Amino acid sequence: MNIALLLEMAAQAAPDRTALVCDGKRWTYGELDKAARGACELIRASGASHVALLDESSEAAVIALFGAALAGVPYCPLNYRLADADLAALLGRIAPALVIGDVERVRKLAGDDGHTAYPRSEFTLAALEAVADEFAEHDPGLGVAIQLFTSGTTAAPKAAILAHSNLVSYILGTVEFGAAEEDEATLVSVPPYHIAGIAALASSIYAQRRIVLLPAFAPEDWLKLVDAEKVSNAFVVPTMLGRIIHALEKGVKADIASLRAIAYGGGKMPLELIRQALDLFPDTAFTNAYGLTETSSTIALLGPDEHRAAHRSDDPKVQARLASVGIPLPTIELEIRDEDGRVLPPGQTGEIYVRGDQVSGQYKEKSALDAEGWFPTRDAGYLDEDGYLFLAGRADDVIVRGGENISPGEIEDLLLTHPAIADVAAVAVPSLEWGEAVGIAVVVRGGMDQPAEDELKAMVRARLRSSRVPEVVRYFPTLPYNEMGKLLRREVKALLAS
Amino acid sequence: MKPGSRIKSAACASEAVVIKYTGGTIECGGLPMAEDAAGDGTPAAGYDGGTVMGKRYVDADGTVELLCVKPGKGSFALNGVALLLKEAKPLPASD
């Protein structure tokens, strides 16, 4: 089934209801559906092989997503923050594309690639005017709906592809059609080229929950928008939540009583921060969502009641769940396996494997699925006795010292308890003796004295095994993160090697 | 009848997308559904419970699944046996 049917159904059921608000402009389901059908005509006429968005979030993201689906062409939102050389390479990989957004940059970087480029406002206008025949044949939706270049925190970007069937399975399996009340609104502040941004659009449209877009995140603007649009739901990455709380503490005034639910994901949530948020918003429902691009977004959830139970509990086992990503969705299968592919029992850390209709596991170049259809996520983790999933970093981030696997997380979690350490990353550094050894990049908390190398080494030796003791200790003013709050370990490695 | 195909009732306004199909005759309001069917709004007695937009319908053995994309007065059946409403377990909004 074509994902565009999700929008068509919403438009049939409630054509005049407000679907989306962006920069003060309001769009109904009927208008978005009409624009998507017009966009399909534009895309077909252009002969494009991909539809790319090189722009911040706006109504154009919805129109391009569903217009591309109707035309049977993959929708490929691009990271406009990429450096010129990296972006030029990606534009080359999707040529000829219909590109919406930064026309100048397309011309400068890929002028000879045969792209058709539209500025945002021209695209939406042209789409609304291009609606031809209501009964035009649309693509049946048997192929690829979305192509997303992975963020490439460990290697060059891969082109992950999601079929219509993957995304439809995810939406039908997790969202009830038209379930949202008319006063519900969801604030989307993640970028349009992230799977969470795309899933938010599709889920909200199918639930008929009004989408409020915040194209460029700033905590003050986020709070103002919650107040002005009476937002009920929001998705944030942990970094955003920290900045929102900081803004409230600084005294930013906003009435956010309408905010009933906050979902978060996309990176590791510091325990201290979620505890603070639970205290600060005692009536808000918090949901932790874990998912990957290759799995059409969420595959495990820690729900609102579980957050409260863990926060209140005196039982260390229940308390610990606040640091978990919850229980796998009932619509997927999940296993933890060791390096030889054996399924591990609860409590043992290995690689997370998933299988299900929403799981693509396909890249343009190759499939990552094994013979039985399981997708190796390259995320390390374990399940507790009650089935709660705990993450332990990327499998690729594991430091292999003389044949022993060391998870950076355990070293980082320990060092973060040091009062003078604001942030820390542990990565592999080359070692003549061991092949790899532990190196740490340390950010000293403002106003504190820099802790001595020997002190940090002693701390690790005392609390963890001697193999975990860092061979290299370096101090930096900040660590490199991408805009989703994901630590760029590749760059930390380069910093420590230089 | 391929998964993904959109079929219409010959007895009412109902339309459905085939999510899963392994065999048999899919009916609505007592008549076979087809991609080019059109209904006049009078489903047969016993097959007139109505369909609800956005709901999924399955047979007891899970061989067929339909998503209602346009509601009507008829009800869906497989080989004369009424399909059942697939109960979805609601999850908290996560994105």
Provide an overview of this structure.
The complex is a heterodimer of chains A (498) and B (95). Chain A folds into two domains: 4-306, 3-Layer(aba) Sandwich (Rossmann fold); 398-497, GMP Synthetase, Chain A, domain 3 (2-Layer Sandwich). Helices cover 34% and strands 26% of the residues of chain A. In chain A, the strands form six sheets. In chain A, strands 2-1-10-9-11-12-13-14-15 form a nine-stranded mixed β-sheet, with helices on both faces. The mean pLDDT of chain A is 94. The N and C termini of chain B lie far apart (33 Å). Chain B contains no helices and nine strands. In chain B, the strands form two sheets. Chain B has a five-stranded antiparallel β-sheet with strand order 1-2-6-5-9, with no helix packed on it. A four-stranded antiparallel β-sheet of chain B has the order 4-3-7-8, with no helix packed on it. At the A-B interface, helix 1, helix 7, helix 8, strand 13 and strand 14 of A face strand 6 of B.
Describe the secondary structure blueprint for this structure.
The complex is a heterodimer of chains A (498) and B (95).
Chain A (H helix, E strand, L loop, with lengths): L3 H10 L4 E5 L2 E4 H18 L3 E5 L4 H13 L3 E3 L6 H10 L3 E5 L1 H8 L5 E3 L1 H11 L13 E6 L9 E5 H11 L10 E4 L6 H13 L2 E4 L5 H11 L3 E4 L1 H12 L11 E4 L6 H10 L4 E8 L4 E6 L1 H9 L3 H5 L6 E2 L4 E5 L12 E6 L6 E2 L11 E9 L5 E6 L4 E3 L2 E3 L1 H8 L5 E11 L3 E10 L8 H11 L8 E4 L13 H9 L1
Parallel strand pairs in A: 1-10, 3-4, 3-5, 5-6, 9-10, 9-11, 11-12, 12-13, 24-25
Antiparallel strand pairs in A: 1-2, 7-8, 8-18, 13-14, 14-15, 16-17, 17-19, 19-20, 21-22, 23-24
Helix pairs in contact in A: 1-2, 1-8, 2-3, 2-6, 4-5, 9-10
Chain B lengths: L5 E3 L6 E6 L5 E3 L2 E2 L23 E3 L6 E6 L5 E3 L2 E2 L1 E2 L10
Antiparallel strand pairs in B: 1-2, 2-6, 3-4, 3-7, 5-6, 5-9, 7-8
